[in-house]
Amino acid sequence: MLAYDFMQNAFLASTFIAVTCGVVGVFVTARGLSFLAHTLSEIGFAGAAFAVLVGIPPLDGMLLTTVISSVSVGRLSVKASRREASISAVSSLFTGLGILFLALSAKSASYATTILFGSIIGISRADVWQLVLLALVVLITIAIGFRGLAFDSFDPVGAQAQNLRRNAISVYFLLILAISVSIGAQIVGSLLVFILLTLPSAVAKYLGKTLPQMLTIAVVVALIGVWAGLVLGYYTNWPVTFFIAAIECLFYFAALLLKHRTE
User: What is the pTM of this model?
Assistant: First the structure.
């Protein structure tokens, strides 16, 4: 299996993406931003579709739209009273724009399938290095601001009492989340990217007692999901995305059951 270049590329890219989504996902769950990860994925869909229309790489279009819109959308949905309506409006608008751009591009249906469900098997070596670079940027950035981000995410009251620059941290994390959504979509597509950003971290929340434990569990669960998904997809010729989604869901329900039985 690993004798083929396309499988080597797939494993290399998916490893870095899984680690990134696992780490970022822990903070997504802690900050209650799972809904935003889903919204940014739909914004990314519109960006990728627009990229296809104008003839640039879909990842570039996805990065552009998610990064630009992440802060404004995040601020728009800060208040719980308007969150549901705001997110619904933004999601509907960008989903519609994505469909419009694909229709105008006159491309084949495979382009829409690739954007929505990912195409890790067909990724090129140049794409791999781009994804690896973006993943490293995210991980290094988190490492630099780790203490402040962890404090603000898990103890917002204490962070406010310590006069931590919470607005700056919020913007900083929203940008990290935008990049993570864009690179994660290369595995499972814009439609299901929130799986890698929420389910491994949800498992970690149930099983981990400390932040290092949660980060480790989330990364391991994400890695097992993408690695097993690639192997099963190779031998069955079924969609890799299906296996990743199924495996992550199994981990989640197993963790939920274990948590329930130990309470």
Answer: 0.86
